[in-house]
Amino acid sequence: MGIRAGFHIEYECENETPMLLVLKVHPSRQSDLRTEQTLTFNRAIPVRDYVDVYGNTCTRILAPPGTTTISTEFELCDSGLPDLVPEQAAQLTIQDLPDDVLVFLLGSRYCETDRLADFAWMRFCQTPLGWPRVKAIIDFVHTHIAFDYSRADPCRTACGSFIDRAGVCRDFAHLAITLCRCMNIPARYCSGYLGDIGVAKDRYPMDFGAWFEVYLGGRWYAVDARYNIPGIGRILIARGRDATDVALSTAFGPAILTHFEVIAQEIV
Amino acid sequence: MGIRAGFHIEYECENETPMLLVLKVHPSRQSDLRTEQTLTFNRAIPVRDYVDVYGNTCTRILAPPGTTTISTEFELCDSGLPDLVPEQAAQLTIQDLPDDVLVFLLGSRYCETDRLADFAWMRFCQTPLGWPRVKAIIDFVHTHIAFDYSRADPCRTACGSFIDRAGVCRDFAHLAITLCRCMNIPARYCSGYLGDIGVAKDRYPMDFGAWFEVYLGGRWYAVDARYNIPGIGRILIARGRDATDVALSTAFGPAILTHFEVIAQEIV
Amino acid sequence: MGIRAGFHIEYECENETPMLLVLKVHPSRQSDLRTEQTLTFNRAIPVRDYVDVYGNTCTRILAPPGTTTISTEFELCDSGLPDLVPEQAAQLTIQDLPDDVLVFLLGSRYCETDRLADFAWMRFCQTPLGWPRVKAIIDFVHTHIAFDYSRADPCRTACGSFIDRAGVCRDFAHLAITLCRCMNIPARYCSGYLGDIGVAKDRYPMDFGAWFEVYLGGRWYAVDARYNIPGIGRILIARGRDATDVALSTAFGPAILTHFEVIAQEIV
Amino acid sequence: MGIRAGFHIEYECENETPMLLVLKVHPSRQSDLRTEQTLTFNRAIPVRDYVDVYGNTCTRILAPPGTTTISTEFELCDSGLPDLVPEQAAQLTIQDLPDDVLVFLLGSRYCETDRLADFAWMRFCQTPLGWPRVKAIIDFVHTHIAFDYSRADPCRTACGSFIDRAGVCRDFAHLAITLCRCMNIPARYCSGYLGDIGVAKDRYPMDFGAWFEVYLGGRWYAVDARYNIPGIGRILIARGRDATDVALSTAFGPAILTHFEVIAQEIV
Fold first, then answer.
1. Which of A27, A45, B186, D254 has the CA that lies 20 to 30 A from D2?
2. Whether residue A135 is found in the same domain as residue A62
3. Does residue C27 belong to any structural domain of this protein?
4. Does residue D215 contact residue D242 with C-beta atoms inside 8 Å?
5. Distance (Å) from the alpha carbon of D36 to chain B's nearest alpha carbon
6. Residue B170 phi/psi, 5° resolution?
7. How far is CA D83 from the centre of its chain?
8. In this predicted model, what pLDDT tens digit does every residue of A115-169 receive, in sequence order?
């Protein structure tokens, strides 16, 4: 299956503003790219890429005063298969987890494991270890939170979603990640394109999406607490401890997002 | 100057409990060690070290049911000089910061930069860039928070300290780190021995301490918002985004700390 | 396209022998796995995975005296498309290369850039920058070395292949990598399954293969100097500076490989 | 003890030449710096620092046509104590080595472990494990190689020194590292200032020096096969697998070193 994806974003800055962008397809999908994937700007500005500790490609720019547009469009091939459901994958004991996975058991900005541990153990300790426990968590989160774009709040944490019972895809992810970590199941946050393929077909307007991954049976599996069914055609951009690490843009100064358009369509 | 340091810690677990310890002197101080530094346990248990993404030595153990004691004692040489005060060090622009430093501008579990940014800019935007701004922040934090062991709270964040106006050394560090990051000054959390040397001479009982580092003029400098004077004889154990990353112990199951004793004394 | 792949390997050790294995599919292909991928041993032995600085999954084992067998078999989905040929991709100037890419310009155990630089510049300086230069290098290597299994030599370096004019796939890769690096084109070594798909259809018996990647136009592209045509169905295991970093097994003591069998077949 | 150190280096380039410099004091000594440590150039050129996978501070510059000078001078405090001799430190089994240490058992550009393994085992297998074995290796290397500045050869490997029996400090280090690795003792290459302090008092003219570190009893210890006595006042610049990783400068194009001056003196 071929996917054509990209975006067009505009920022308005009063002053010269350094920005950190996490907008390139993740290196692990690089070999699936069938065209170049270049960030294009509306004027010549300083741009530099680097790879962060989580393996994401980050881009540093210095946005001049006025309007800065950032665009890309590329083609990528994809299996077209839905996310694998690890029904048989065992939950590893803490002792058997690789060292680099342990950090995804700890708390982070939007995932207050220390605050939700008691609830998590009370609610999920009876569920069987492994996938059934993860499934119980995403079922809970999927039902507990009502999706509502109008109630998006960039400061809302997992505790916030737990109390507010409303949010957007990042809130579903943060709460589910937190509960998994509380139950000693490593979980990490993912951002990327979801587009109009598979589960997200009805979504309008198109947008970047957030989901997460759990570590079971010796590898990471993509899971989605918002849609709660296996997705098709995800294009990973970045992974991290939570949304802090993979913010599409972090502006070090005032920058107003004035236009935002994402595409991710099957090539037919 | 020679320092003799170490600790004796006891945990009580009902079940076999995996634990993650961050208790060894940081690799950057390894060449100052004049004796071996080994963690000793009261019984033979599985132990393994690894280095995390921040460069800290972490130790994984599997504590058996019952009492587990962990001890170490070692000698180390130290300059005996107080923390350098970077009065002339320039505050680098965001563009000039090295890539690996950027993560220390982002929010983290106990440092809600998104929530405190408005206050920080309002309060500190008039201060001169660089060290004077850092000094204004630590002066503020030093005065704003009242040190009170009895009000220690492991879940308290920077916002919590800001509101509660009480806390222990980690709270001073978290609030100061958050305010520095809000002002685009990279800041990272440090834990280690402070002992009875220099600023901490009056402290009783001895304990591990928390301080932080700011990035100015191309390097990191140790700063201490609790004591607010240059310290002598710090022995770094670990650095991270905040206390989450350098918790002395993270138990993956119930574990009660039943004894805790730290020494760090000048050898005379 | 589905691929079923795996291997069966046997080692004979007289004494207990620690071994380092690099035999698991690379994390970047993990999301394409449709079944679990577990290393199976003929007896219970200590096994532990970790991720090295290049992002490869490494496995540490302690092989007991006698025969140790290691097997795996798994299914994976693949685009079925040939390696992308980056005909239009620009060769970045050194200044524009990301920091993490620079190490792949330096010499390494089997890639003596210092010894081959003069030849490389003499021979390839007239070729156009970018892909045409890479193509000239792989054309040269493909013709210069005669493939000959009987002349495999695990100590042979790029200079060795250059002089001997004979070797196996790793020698093609090492010489081409070295020449690319001499010409300031970052190049890294790859190992993995090639199987009976695409270019390697005629190969007998099946084996793991070596190829390499070059950094052009902002990303890495797979290239193969042995076959010199775009491959289909490569399954990456590991990347590194050269074969040292991705040896399928490194035994710290005498260990004799007594059986070796690899499969990688299209599922029809 | 205070040390004043620095250098003055001049390069002559015909064309604009990108260079990679590893010339700043290692981050692990940063807290000992009592003054700023800035690289100064004779004209305004693009400069950028980053940290490599070994934890070294690297500097990227674009040297313009003509003469480029690079200078620094700084003060640092030091214990004044000689290198610790780990007489009692145990040699860990391979199984007990931390994951991040394993790479320092593998071969590298100038350390052909595969070629020298047989000699190493024949020669050193009777020596007691741990420090006595390391000492036997450095005694051997110290005697086997004759120090001779006039026979410096930047392409010489450990095998080359073994055969030539002549070389400079880097050759002593490479041969000793290789033999240690062959005997399953992790060893890594170090570069830095040695100055006129301690062992190097008689050296003329002053220069940067190379030594190495071995991993025994759970930590790294500095060792010097050239002088074969514990050194005083080493100032570490960088560590790596061998000289490739820590070259003071790597020029990507012709660059002639026209002046070179290093100081490292005790402040009295």
1. B186
2. no
3. yes
4. no
5. 8
6. -65, -30
7. 15
8. 999 999 999 999 999 999 999 999 999 999 999 999 999 999 999 999 999 999 9
- Positive/negative CA dihedral, C150, C154, C157, C160: negative
**In this structure, what CATH number is given to the domain that contains residue D258?**
2.60.40.2250
Asked if B88's CB is within 8 angstroms of D37's CB, the reply is no
Give me the residue from B18, B60, B154 closest to A114, CB to CB.
B154
Q: Which two tokens stand for residue A183?
A: 């139950």
- Shared domain check, D169 and D136: yes
- Cβ of D112 and C250 within 8 Å? no
Test A51 with C89 for CB contact under 8 angstroms.
no
Is the entire prediction scored with pTM above 0.90? yes
User: What's the pLDDT at C1?
Assistant: 86
Res. C65: pLDDT tops 80: yes
Q: What is the pLDDT of residues B45-72, one digit of tens each?
A: 999 999 999 999 999 999 999 999 999 9
CATH number at residue C204: 3.10.620.30
- Mean of all residue pLDDT scores within chain A: 93
Within this chain, do residues D54 and D120 fall inside the same structural domain, yes or no? no
State which residues form the domain around D6.
Answer: 2-79+248-267
| A164 & A254 share domain | no
Q: Are residues C107 and C35 part of one domain?
A: no
C115, part of any domain: yes
Q: Is pLDDT of C20 > 90?
A: yes
C219: pLDDT strictly greater than 90: yes
The answer, yes or no, to whether the previous bond of B86 is cis (omega within 30 of 0) is: no
> Greatest CA span in chain B, whole angstroms?
58
Q: D117 and D185 share a domain?
A: yes
- CB contact under 8 Å between C28 and A33, yes or no, is no
SS3 (DSSP) at B117: helix
| Number of domains chain B is built from | 2
Comparing CB atoms, the residue among A20, A46, A105 nearest residue B102 is A20
| Contacting subunits of D (3+ beta carbon pairs below 8 A) | B, C
Contact present, C211 and C231 (Cβ < 8 Å): yes
